[in-house]
Amino acid sequence: MDNLINISISQDFTVTPGPRRKVEGDFSGELFSETILEPAFKKAKEENKKILINLDGTLGYGTSFLEEVFGGLQRKYKEDNISAYVGFTSKEEPYLVDDINQYIKDANK
Amino acid sequence: MLTSNKKYLSYGFCLVSLFVGIYLGSVASIWLFEHYSMGAGREISIEINPFEIISLIVNVLLVVFILRIFQKNDDLEKIEKGLIVENLKKFEENFSTFLKVAIPKSNKLVLRREEIVNRMKRFRMEFESLLTISTQGSVFKEDSFPLKENISNIYAELTDKPESEGFLKFDSSSTDKLATLNYIFHKLMFEYLVKVIKSDR
After folding, report:
1. Closest partner CB to A62 (pick from B125, B159, B165)
2. Would you call A59 and B161 a contact, using CB atoms and an 8 Å cutoff?
3. What are the chain A neighbours of B125 within 8 Å (beta carbons)?
4. What was the ipTM of the complex prediction?
5. Under an 8 A CB cutoff, do A59 and B117 touch?
6. Cα dist from B111 to A102, B80, B165, whole Å
7. What is the DSSP letter of A68?
8. Do B110 and B138 meet the contact criterion of CB atoms below 8 Å apart?
9. What distances in angstroms separate CA B124 from CA A60, B107, B121, one per listed residue?
10. Which residue did the predictor score with more confidence, B172 or B51?
């Protein structure tokens, strides 16, 4: 679909998502945000599109990675409701979508 | 539910058996009375319609046939419940063993973050699958929420940690909290198992 920006973490970034910050190790949430998610988010806002993030195909996520990426994005763009621009999909771990929505909600407080 | 249908059918079967029994008993009594009674002029006649007898026999056979089908389904449900309980218990044992290794003692770290994260993914996927299968019948999805939330909390407490050289860094408050969550996990799992065992399957 033309109004969707598809991102697959396993294919576009890594199959081994790392820690929260770049200083802690490789493939961190901070690195993913800087190099992939934030540029896509800005584009989505400008072009009125939605980002769909596929969470499947990795060896697993730590809470710190997910919270840094999605909670961090909400903290950075406090005036925006990022849920309006970012959606998630996972067949392997559908419960992650609930986890992430909670991180976004907590970051909004 | 199949189980309640089976109850009605078993009542039906009992009723049919009762009527057949009364009918056959009456016929037998009359036959015996007519052939072996010593009195004169005692005659009792009863009309036997063969079509009615055939109809009755067919109905009884139909009831028996249907009961056997439902009995088979009932056995399958019992086997399914047994499998679910067995797998839930295995999950509890494996998860518990993993936590014993993952939760550090005296700041001694054993597992790297990648291993913890990968194992947690597999555990959560397995658990989600078990919950989907077990929340049928009279075990509702809401019954599984406390257990699911507890495992999510363990996942968060285990993996939302700073990292150094691939190892997650825990402090004493984290290990205490994980120990508490582990205890709660066993308690909730026990309650959930009881619900599944008592469920209408």
Report:
1. B159
2. no
3. 92-93
4. 0.90
5. yes
6. 27, 36, 12
7. I
8. no
9. 10, 26, 5
10. B172
Pick the closest to residue B163 from A46, A30, A7, A106 (CA basis): A30
Q: What are the b/e assignments for B18-56, b being 16+ CB within 10 Å?
A: eeeeeeeeeeeeeeeeeeeeeeeeeeeeeeeeeeeeeee
Tens digit of each residue's pLDDT (9 = 90 or more) over B113-134: 999 999 999 999 999 999 888 8
Residues A70, A100 contacting (CB under 8 angstroms):
yes
Which residues on chain B are in Cβ contact (under 8 Å) with A19? 113, 162-163
Tens digits of residue pLDDT in A50-68: 999 999 999 999 999 999 9
Under an 8 A CB cutoff, do B117 and A67 touch? no
CB A67 within 8 A of CB A20: yes
